[in-house]
Write a structure and sequence with these properties.
The protein has helices at about 15-20, 25-35, 35-45, 55-70, 80, 90; strands at about 1-5, 10-15, 85. The protein is mainly α. It has a single domain, classed as lambda repressor-like DNA-binding domains (434 Repressor (Amino-terminal Domain)). Strands 1-2-3 form a 3-stranded antiparallel beta sheet. β1 and β2 (about 10-15) form a beta hairpin. The chain starts with a strand and ends in a 12-residue tail after the last helix. This is XRE family transcriptional regulator. GO terms for molecular function: DNA binding. InterPro entries: Cro/C1-type_HTH, Lambda_DNA-bd_dom_sf.
Length: about 100
């Protein structure tokens, strides 16, 4: 799984996995989603995504949803399917339960 890494937490980028589930090519997703095929390739193969526009994220979700339906899989793809967040425990340990910095 591709991910952004914090000291322990991470945001996992799951485009590659979602495409593999239905054997979807870069070219097919690009055509369905209305995104350039080079953009799809870069996003699919990225270890780190520094930023992604809401427009591109929306097009990916819509395009993947259409592709899943074409494969007879009734699934709506959301940003939460593409991005999975795991908290950075080192960061969280710096905060007390009220969200205030711990004395240290």
């Amino acid at each position: 799984m591709r991910a952004f890494f914090g000291s322990q937490g991470m945001i996992q980028w799951r485009l590659r996995q979602l495409m593999a589930e239905i054997n979807l090519s870069n070219n097919d997703l690009a055509e369905i989603a209305g995104i350039h095929r080079v953009t799809v390739s870069k996003l699919k193969n990225s270890d780190v995504i520094k930023q992604i526009s809401g427009d591109v994220l929306n097009k990916l979700c819509n395009g993947l949803t259409v592709a899943y339906r074409r494969k007879d899989r009734d699934r709506v793809i959301t940003p939460g399917d593409l991005l999975v967040f795991t908290p950075d425990q080192d960061y969280l340990q710096k905060e007390n339960p009220k969200g205030e910095p711990k004395d240290g």
